Amino acid sequence: MRKHALYRLIALAALTGLTLPGATITVTAPTAGESLRTGCPYTIRWTSTGLTGDVRISLYRGTSELLGIIENRIAASAGSLEWNVGQLISGSAGTGDNYRVRVVELRGETTGQSAAFSISPEAPLLRVMSPNGGESLMIGTGGGIPFEYVNV
After folding, report:
1. Could you tell me the pTM of the whole model?
2. Residue 119: CB partners within 8 Å, gap ≥ 6?
C-alpha cells in the first residue's frame, strides 16, 4: 500500500510540477578554480533529483551579489546549458574571479550553486590580413604576410 502511495505522489508531482521532498540540484560545472574565456562557448552542467519543473540559471559574484540571469527557464531534467561565457539576458559580465553559477527551481524551493570560478579575457588571436583567399603566391618573390594581433 505504501509503495502505491509513493508512485501516486511521483505521478502527481510530474503532472503538476510539484517538488518532491528531498529534491536536490547539484551544479557540476563550472568547477572550483576553473577559468572560462569571455565570449567562448561553455557547457554549464547540473544534476537534479525530485524536480519535475523548470529552473533559472543566474550568475553571481561571491555567494550573494546577483549579476544577472543566464537563462530564465529551462527544464530541470535538461541537465546542461550551452553558455556564451559572460553573456547575460540583460548585458554581460566582466572579467574577474569569484563568480558562481546558481541553478534555482522557479518556485525557489531548491537551489544548487557551483564552486567559485573566474572569467578571463578573450584569447589573443593572430589575424592574417593577406593572402585572404584566391591569391596565388610565387615561391621566392619576397614580400611578407601582413597580420594583426586581436585581443592583446
Report:
1. 0.71
2. 35, 36, 37, 38, 85, 86, 93, 94, 95, 96, 97, 99
